[in-house]
């Protein structure tokens, strides 16, 4: 772990890791912040910034160093139903994830799967609105719930997740008015990605915030820094450093005496004499 991560993790002393009960108790009282990030460095930055919730790839949240850098970020992980397999596969995978430090599991599978997990007391998060793995059923990658009929279906889906035992759902690319009205009428938490401030948490991807998204940047995203330009600058610096190194080797400027280990001249003489006798 880098010293920077150690310093950032020390800032967590003033707060603690929230529980599911805490998140439920905060419903309607304040907006929570939520990120999806992709590295331990981003996790440490989220901790230092006081981010409340994170959606974290399994390989990051299950890293043995993860909780050292993000001890108080409520961290959800998971895989899609396309990757996971059967409800029993989900059950085994989620049990492993929770035992290794995850706080909740994401499930894009059926309500039957959600219910199976929740009956085993796994904190489950569902997904409504624009769900990438199910987008063909809602017309592709576009907003969901723009008509009264579609909004009612969305409300029923949220209620079904609530009945199945999920404690939260991501609600993605839904009209803000619809999401706000649904949130008023349910106990389940709504985590908004492009669904307005009437929900319980605002959810963005770190790559969008930091400006290194490749390809389409969604309308709901906001960029706060231009890391793409910074990465390009760093690559130019890498190339320049490697070029200078190659030139030093070719010209004899590297290695210098300070980079070498020297032998006592008397030992060297004995070594050469021994070699010559072979």
TrEMBL record:
Cross-referenced InterPro entries: Pantoate_hydroxy_MeTrfase, Pyrv/PenolPyrv_kinase-like_dom, Pyrv_kinase-like_dom_sf
Keyword tags: Methyltransferase, Pantothenate biosynthesis, Transferase
Similarity comment: family membership: Belongs to the PanB family.
EC number(s) on file: 2.1.2.11
Biological process according to GO: methylation; pantothenate biosynthetic process
Catalytic site: 172 (proton acceptor)
Protein name, UniProt field: 3-methyl-2-oxobutanoate hydroxymethyltransferase
First-tier enzyme category under EC: transferase
Xref: SUPFAM superfamilies: Phosphoenolpyruvate/pyruvate domain (SSF51621)
Molecular function terms from GO: 3-methyl-2-oxobutanoate hydroxymethyltransferase activity; magnesium ion binding; methyltransferase activity
Subunit structure: Homodecamer; pentamer of dimers.
UniProt superkingdom: Bacteria
């Amino acid at each position: 772990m880098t010293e920077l991560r150690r310093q950032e993790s020390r800032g967590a002393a003033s707060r603690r890791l929230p529980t599911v009960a805490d998140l439920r108790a905060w419903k309607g009282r304040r907006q929570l912040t939520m990120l999806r990030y992709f590295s331990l460095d981003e996790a440490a930055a989220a901790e230092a910034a006081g981010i409340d919730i994170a959606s974290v790839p399994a390989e990051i949240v299950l890293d043995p160093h993860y909780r050292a850098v993000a001890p108080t970020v409520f961290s959800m992980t998971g895989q899609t139903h396309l990757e996971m397999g059967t409800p029993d596969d989900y059950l085994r995978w989620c049990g492993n994830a929770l035992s290794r430090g995850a706080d909740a599991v994401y499930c894009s599978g059926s309500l039957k799967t959600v219910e199976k997990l929740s009956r085993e007391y796994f904190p489950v998060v569902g997904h409504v609105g624009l769900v990438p793995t199910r987008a063909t059923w809602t017309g592709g990658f576009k907003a969901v719930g723009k008509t009264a009929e579609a909004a009612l279906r969305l409300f029923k889906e949220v209620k079904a997740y609530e009945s199945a035992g999920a404690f939260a759902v991501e609600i993605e690319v839904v009209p803000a008015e619809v999401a706000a009205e649904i949130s008023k009428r349910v106990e389940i938490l709504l985590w908004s990605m492009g669904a307005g401030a009437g929900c319980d948490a605002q959810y963005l991807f770190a790559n969008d915030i930091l400006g290194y998204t490749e390809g389409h940047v969604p309308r709901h995203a906001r960029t706060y820094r231009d890391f793409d330009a910074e990465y390009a600058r760093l690559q130019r610096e890498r190339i320049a450093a490697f070029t200078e190194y190659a030139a030093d080797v070719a010209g004899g400027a590297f290695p210098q005496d300070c980079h070498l280990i020297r032998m006592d001249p008397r030992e060297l003489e004995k070594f050469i004499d021994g070699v010559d006798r072979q």
